[in-house]
Structure formats: structure tokens, C-alpha cells
Amino acid sequence: MWEPDYLLISTILYYLMPLLLAVLGVIVSIKPQPKERHIMLIIFFVFLMLIGVSSGILQQHLNKKETERQQKKLSDELFQSHLDQEFIKGKLSAIGEIMGRMSKSDSDLYIKKMASVIEQMSRLEPKINGIFPHPEIKFVFKNSPLLTPARQKKITTELNSFRNYLMALGFEVPKEAPSMGIQPGKGATSGWGSSGNPVLSGSIYIGEESIDDLKQWEKTYALYFFDRYYAPAGGNMNDVPFAMLLSDYFSDSYLNKHRRDPKAFSGWTDALWDIRNNCGQDFTDRVLYYASMIETQSGEKDFNKYFSDRLFRGVSVVDNYFQDSPKIGKILRKYNLLKD
What we know:
By secondary structure, this protein is mainly α. It has 3 domains: 6-108; 134-225; 231-340, no CATH class. Helices cover 65% and strands 5% of the residues. It is built from 11 helices and 3 strands. A 3-stranded mixed sheet has the order 1-3-2.
């Protein structure tokens, strides 16, 4: 059944009335009208004015209603996106339980089927930008023949995923990054300026033997981000190791994998991982995010005190009624990182 478009009708009337009034004015001015028509013309003039004003008011009201409808629609879509993500989380948990009861052959077959479904889903465009909520970085790659389009796509997907993880915590990760290339060997090197466009002022190189190690790309990108934006030139002497420690932790936390090394940062990387194991990833991630926002005394030279001060100020933001603070203190004392 046809329904009238009141917004369109009111818009037409709104613009038509001034035109009719103008035509009426031209008619009256060109040809004088007899007195018996004056009252009729006045009534017609007032009638057109009333229609014009009424259509203007109606148009404003309908525009407001349409704006509210669009806002509600967007809100509903965002809420549905959140429900979809929670639903996926629940399904993944259930899948894990189901696979735990399967034989190895059944489990392998199930994984192959799931991989096929995921591949098909990856080709679909989401209705709203909920899965990747931030615009992707279009990384600049140098002209190495090893950096094939397929490799560039994998690296870009991995680094954007890591960037989204950081931004979900609250970090403001720029849309620009140093250009990326390949060097001989296995390790990675990088360098960048402290200001200006990162594409023009820096480079990241990954060893050709590690070109397909996405973890290496992600860790080097993390080091770039934290070192450039959390170790400002002329700051505290501990800002650089602080940024490097954040880089190590967040890259490990994103990958959910940590290689223990008691010598790394005097044991801080292992201590932070113990805190994560005891208090949870969400808690520790947020603690270190807030720790990164808090500046300590600029003259502090002792790194353990410098970092523990920032750490506990982050804990004070997240910890509910000091329930986790004692556990954290105990872990730090175990590594001789906190003095009584």
C-alpha cells in the first residue's frame, strides 16, 4: 500500500509558496484589480502565507524525527554488533569445550570445516565497521622483490590487528608508520625521527630470514610506536627503557605468548607476566595503559622505583578496593623489584 512521503510534500510546499506569492504580487502590480477582488486577494495571500509557514514548521519537525530515527538505527546496529561479538566469544568457548571431547580425527575434520567457514566470512563486508573499528593503516613497503603482494597483505593485516588491540585499550596510534623493508640476516633494525611524518622520517627493516615471522614484524612495530611516542627527547633517562618494556609486554600480551628471560629489564618482563597470570590480561593491560599516561618525577634515576611508581599509580585506577595490590607487591618482591 502506498504511503505519502510527508517530508517530501512539506518540502515541495515550503519552496512552492514563495513562488506563488511572487506570482500573485506580479499579477497585482501589472494589472490593477477592482475593489471587489481586494478582499479575495488578501484572503488568498494570507492563505498562502499560512501554508508556507505551516509547511516550514512541519518540515523542521519531520527532519528532527528523521534524524532521531537514523540515530536510533545506528545505535541499534552498534548494539547488535556488540551482541554479535559477545555471541562469537560464547561460541568460541563452546567450540573449545566440544573439541575437548572429540577424537583427534574428528577434531581435525572440525577444524578444517571451521577454517572453510571463516575464509568465506572473511570475504564478506560487515554491515558496520565493528570488527575493525578503526581505519586501516596503508603501510608503505620498500621495493624489495621479497615483499610480494601476498606478504604485504599478511603483514598489513597483522599490524592493523595489533593496532586495533592497542586502540581498544585507549592508545592513540597514528595512521602513519615508517616505511618497511628487508635486510640481510635474521634480526630487525629500525630508526625514526621524533617529529614529522613517520613515513618520511623513518624505516623499519626485518631480516630476510624472518620475513614470514609475523611476530617479528609486530614486535618491531610495537617498539617503534612506544619508543617514538612514550620516550620523548629530553625526558627522563628512564623513559626509553620504560617504552621498551611497554613494547615487550603489549606485544606478548597481544600474542598471548611470553618467553621468560630473568635478565630482561632486571626481571620486569617476567614479573609483569606473572601479574597478568594472577590478575588477568584485561586488568594488567589496563593498568599499564594508565601507567603510560602518568608521568613520574622527572629526576628519578632508579628504574625500579621509576617503573613501580608508575605501575602502582596505574593499579590505583583499575584495582577495586585494593584487592589485587597485595598480590602485585608480593610478585615484585619475589623479583627484588620493590623495596619494603
